[in-house]
Amino acid sequence: MYWSCFPMGSCIFPISMEHASPANRSGLTSFPCIAYSACSSPTVKLLEEPRPARAGKSAIETAEDAALALRPLAHEGAYLLFAAGLFNASLFAASILPISTAYAVCEGLGFESGLDKRFEEAPAFYWLYTALIVFGAGVVLIPGFPLFRVMVLSQVVNGVLLPFVLVFVLMLINDRELMGDYTNSRPYNVISWVTVTVMALLTIAMMVAQGRS
User: Fold this and answer.
1) How many angstroms separate the CA atoms of 179 and 194, rounded?
2) Residues ≥6 apart with Cβ < 8 Å to 138
């Protein structure tokens, strides 16, 4: 969910933080916390529950298996809980993820970007945003496509790459020439680098464990 912060930041920082309202600042900080809190409980519970062992299955292979694994938490409403979570994730993926990517690519390559721009002012931004939505929808509609495996694989790759991304984010946030007075304080840097180090070690441990198995 952290990628949802990119469009928010891209909308706020061009205005300048001095002119950003308190609501903008608090929203940029609080939204990731709220999003992770909303997602964490079902995810942790899903990981704690035993895998559904029906019809010879010993692992979660489909969305139906994942929904059934939530039955001890939500009883017969498990499918509703999982459907609501899946709908929420799909809504975010269909809207925020493409626009986050469009912002990141266009800003990195120096193209004009922003939803406040007309199509003539930012054609690369809008074409990329549209292409990503069409591509994602097209993949989902392929008959027999292993959607659940792709979902799991994408999250694994996301988690493996995250420590490397955060290293560059921390380097940028501590660049005084770039950030001015908004660089991290020493306590924030200590917490951030410890977090990144722990995540990197967990990623390495996961890869070693997978390699041995």
Assistant:
1) 22
2) none
The answer to whether the Cα torsion of 44, 209, 146, 132 is positive or negative is: positive
| Six token digits for residue 159 | 């988690």
- Residue 51 structure tokens: 């895998």
**Six token digits for residue 119:** 């199509």
Residues 95/96/97/101 CA torsion (nearest 10 deg): 110
Token pair 């990329």 is found at 128
- Look up residue 112 and give its two tokens: 């004009």
Structure tokens at 5: 């912060």
Q: What is the Cα 103 distance to its own chain's centre? A: 15
The full DSSP string for 135-166 is HHHHHHTSTT--HHHHHHHHHHHHHHHHHHHH
Its pTM surpasses 0.70: no
- Among 2-6, 107-111, 158-162, 181-185, where is mean pLDDT lowest? 2-6
∠ at Cα 1 (68, 17), nearest 5°? 160
Task: Dig out the tokens for 156 from the structure.
Answer: 């694994």
pLDDT digits (tens, 9 = 90+) for 56-96: 555 666 666 766 766 666 666 666 777 777 777 777 777 78
Query: Is the separation of the CB atoms in 165 and 205 below 8 Å?
Result: no
pLDDT at 34: 55
- Location of structure tokens 């269909």: 94
Tell me the two tokens of residue 147: 């959607």
Count CB atoms within 10 A of the CB of residue 210.
9
How far is 5 from 94, CA to CA, in rounded Å? 15
